[in-house]
Design brief:
By secondary structure, the protein is an alpha+beta fold. Helix content is 31%, strand content 26%.
């Protein structure tokens, strides 16, 4: 990034700016080279204002919530990464149909736990899914018996050309782990979202979350990862196919296809993105050769990559 641009960013963002910051610290896989600049935002208004300035400057940027669904290249990211810490959460417990409006940097776990304490159900599935509401709304996160598409009422969007808009859930055109925003890579950010909830007994809601959490712990490996690497192909499971291809436990450097669940790729420490990508390519190639199935990534590759 040019020195003049960096000076402008310093003036604009002050102590909210970090320069040449390793993205490994902002991703659950703990992998990734430096971003030219990181800007932290702590409210939806700050997020909107920051994005508007960057668009005005025509500086490329991406937004990260929990960084739990991205693999950042070893060369990092040219331009700016907005780190979303806009976390205001407000429940409407009085209406006939209770709901929650949360800023996009709020974690799913916080929303689910707070809802439970208020005797509000419907987010139990989300308590064990890492990451932010924004990431979940963007990628239609889901687990067990729920997904964001099933809870969402509306999304507050900031669109580069059209400004602020409120989209009803239908406009997100959700499909399995995808949305219109994700498919079309629209120049738009999720500022906040409103989710529909139900009513229940706090103890029963918390017991369900505990059960789901135990189920996850018994089937999914611990360690730094991005969760499921590939989407499940129709009628099958990516993990089953990778295991049947004989790749469970396969390692490149410190990256490993988990021996516990073959759709989880684990960073055993100081792993390069290149090694994780090596495993991704190997899994795809082997599964396609053996079963004629082309695995589609669930995670996103972000930043600079050698082609
Ligand atoms: C151990 C583990 C288990 C997991 N289990 C599940 C699971 O059961 N189900 C599931 O669905 N996922 C699962 N995941 C994946 C991940 O938790 C979800 O995809 C999550 O919703 C990503 O949220 P995030 O904030 O981390 O997104 P990030 O990784 O930060 O970002 C992902 C994408 O969303 C975009 N984005 C983020 N915030 C915004 C915003 N405000 N506006 C516009 N775009 C935005 C980013 O630019 C990026 O393109 C798991 C991950 C891990 C590490």
């Amino acid at each position: 990034m040019q020195t003049a641009t960096l000076s402008t960013l310093r003036e604009l963002f002050g102590d909210r700016l970090q320069e040449n910051a390793p993205l490994s610290g902002y991703t659950s896989a703990r992998v990734g080279g430096p971003a030219d600049a990181l800007v932290f935002v702590r409210s939806a208004d700050e997020l909107a204002a920051t994005a508007a300035r960057l668009w005005e400057m025509e500086l490329p940027f991406i937004i990260l919530g929990g960084g739990t669904n991205v693999l950042v290249g070893d060369k990092g990211m040219r331009g700016v990464v907005i780190v979303n810490r806009a976390r205001l959460v407000r429940f409407d417990t009085k209406s006939e149909r209770p709901s929650v409006r949360a800023e996009s940097g709020a974690t799913l776990n916080t929303i689910a736990q707070r809802a439970a304490r208020l005797g509000l159900s419907g987010m139990e599935w989300a308590a064990t899914v890492p990451g932010s509401l924004g990431g979940a709304v963007y990628g239609n996160a889901g687990a067990f018996d729920g997904d964001i598409a099933g809870n969402l009422i509306s999304v507050e969007i900031l669109h580069r050309q059209r400004g602020g808009e409120v989209w009803p859930v239908e406009k997100m055109a959700y499909s399995y782990r995808s949305s219109l925003l994700k498919r079309e890579r629209q120049p738009a950010l999720i500022l906040a979202a409103t989710l529909e909830l139900g009513r229940g007994e706090t103890s029963a809601i918390q017991a369900k979350m505990k059960r789901l959490s135990a189920r996850r712990r018994s089937t999914q490996p611990p360690g730094a990862s991005m969760g499921s690497m590939f989407k499940n192909p129709p009628g099958d499971f990516a993990g089953r196919l990778i295991e049947a291809a004989g790749l469970k436990g396969k390692r490149i450097g410190n990256a490993e296809i988990s021996p516990i669940h073959a759709n989880f790729f684990i960073n055993h420490g100081k792993t390069s993105a290149k090694d994780v990508k090596g495993l991704i390519d190997l899994a795809r190639k082997t599964v396609e050769a053996k079963f004629d199935v082309r695995l589609e990534l669930e995670i996103e590759l972000v930043g600079e990559w050698d082609s």
